[in-house]
Amino acid sequence: xxxxxxxxxxxxxxxxxxxxxxxxxxxxxxxxxxxxxxxxxxxxxxxxxxxxxxxxxxxxxxxxxxxxxxxxxxxxxxxxxxxxxxxxxxxxxxxxxxxxxxxxxxxxxxxxxxxxxxxxxxxxxxxxxxxxxxxxxxxxxxxxxxxxxxxxxxxxxxxxxxxxxxxxxxxxxxxxxxxxxxxxxxxxxxxxxxxxxxxxxxxxxxxxxxxxxxxxxxxxxxxxxxxxxxxxxxxxxxxxxxxxxxxxxxxxxxxxxxxxxxxxxxxxxxxxxxxxxxxxxxxxxxxxxxxxxxxxxxxxxxxxxxxxxxxxxxxxxxxxxxxxxxxxxxxxxxxxxxxxxxxxxxxxxxxxxxxxxxxxxxxxxxxxxxxxxxxxxxxxxxxxxxxxxxxxxxxxxxxxxxxxxxxxxxxxxxxxxxxxxxxxxxxxxxxxxxxxxxxxxxxxxxxxxxxxxxxxxxxxxxxxxxxxxxxxxxxxxxxxxxxxxxxxxxxxxxxxxxxxxxxxxxxxxxxxxxxxxxxxxxxxxxxxxxxxxxxxxxxxxxxxxxxxxxxxxxxxxxxxxxxxxxxxxxxxxxxxxxxxxxxxxxxxxxxxxxxxxxxxxxxxxxxxxxxxxxxxxxxxxxxxxxxxxxxxxxxxxxxxxxxxxxxxxxxxxxxxxxxxxxxxxxxxxxxxxxxxxxxxxxxxxxxxxxxxxxxxxxxxxxxxxxxxxxxxxxxxxxxxxxxxxxxxxxxxxxxxxxxxxxxxxxxxxxxxxxxxxxxxxxx
Length: 763
Hints:
The protein is an alpha/beta fold. It contains 24 helices and 19 strands. Residues 613-747 form the Bacterial transcriptional activator domain.
């Protein structure tokens, strides 16, 4: 990326030099070539002596000769040349007084264009940037007020400042960057130009914009000018963003980086596993982890961006900041000295920076500032990476590495400036709401765009659209990160559910659809897997119809499979998918079956006369548990449920609608295995151990099952297997960044000494 930027800088420089050479050639041709040409081809156009009145009368009354016409035009050319030479001198004087683009008046436009082109091409962006910024602000913020810088207060000695002028004239001192941009380059009483916003003089006249800050608007598309050539001292990284369809759809509040979307997606997987680990076999609970809308949207965005041709890969030391020209911009906050955010969009941008920083390092913030960022609603238990302190002094005492977040006032600014200036705090980074003179201060408009910045490297960040979050979304993401962290294991398991089965068999040849495990669809006369040859969306369509054996509405179907599309696009997508599925089925069965879906009464379902689904047998066994009236009938039901379960429901398909169904089925099977083990503990301990081992494969992170297995191994005298079971538990829990509880370790250590063969595990 740096090499590309260097090459583009060389090309721009060569282009500027080429423009300077062309303008110089034109200027030289006019200044030197025109008089030489007139002298060589026309000569002296005026008479050698003063003509008499008789000669003049004769010349004027006679028809115009060609020589007279040529001499007259030559005189006109000499007069225009003299005026041009004079204008060149005046424009050169303008440039010498201050490097800027000269005034382009109607008469002076040729000289101004030539001189301005030469000067700006040779001197580069210094002149163009100042003039361009001033023109842009003048057009967007009409000037209606002139404010005079006041003399120092004779009592307190306090001097006037750009902040005080903005606060006095605009009612908001944080708008001082607008005042500075509007007056940049103006002559000051000391004879120099205004280039430092911290240096103003009493009596100086400052132009004040009359337009108020823009009102809040919903998220518009990013439309900004091409970024200027990056300065070498600003550590910035730009990478291609995913295409627009990978962004969270249908939301106007959450606008985050691809890195944060990936972190949220990974945290959701871990949080779900941790939530399911705490399930008590036999409890009958079917609640799954609640997924907030913003989490769901960011997970979809991450999955859609995984196949992007240009994945976003910011440097390890750079924090994703925003987007410019559909490219993600990342900034090394430590290298630039920290960020100060002001303006109506500062708080939303700060939330996004805080949540993004939590995925990379720890964040320290006072309780008061956290409440102001997240609103009045209760924050709840924060993730461990978020350090909440009680005062700014404690904030300044944080050990690196950390990101410090604070609203700046006079006292907090003094504490933090001293802290961040110390050599030992190099890994402390500041993100502040307020003006931050030691780093970069950004003025952020209501739509999240950086409208201006403090002088220095931060000026090239202007025009970037910052990532932002509202308070509800920020709270939901913090709650997700907390759910993804280790929690204590439950104490013990209670009685298991009692489930019976009523499996209906049929000998009619049908398509065989396997949903338990990796989905597969086969025709009995062929080993060819139809599901492996169709598109992933068609496989998901078949799975959705099979899971909803009683049928589903069109609305539920399109909302599950095409949540990001409009109603028209979703309807077309469903019709196309059904047509492709019919073609694939017809081709695979040789025309024996042309369609496996039944559509009627506004509902869609698979035809049970043409398709046999293993999940349907398991579902019937689970839902028919109440029909078993005898102990033996219940045992048969438990055994049937356990035997029918051959793997997770539709393994490999990651869709939000499928997760709750998949988890409910898994828990039903675990309950059946636990209940069967409970019933067989006194008559067949070997089969009980086999059932517990099988249940462990269904739920490899559930510590309660491992405890029961160790108790049974101790009961059977297999003491050498107990440490292996504990080691297996430790390895499985390490996959989710957890470890066995003290209860499990104590059990493994004491069972060899206190085992008794007549004791069996409590399920």
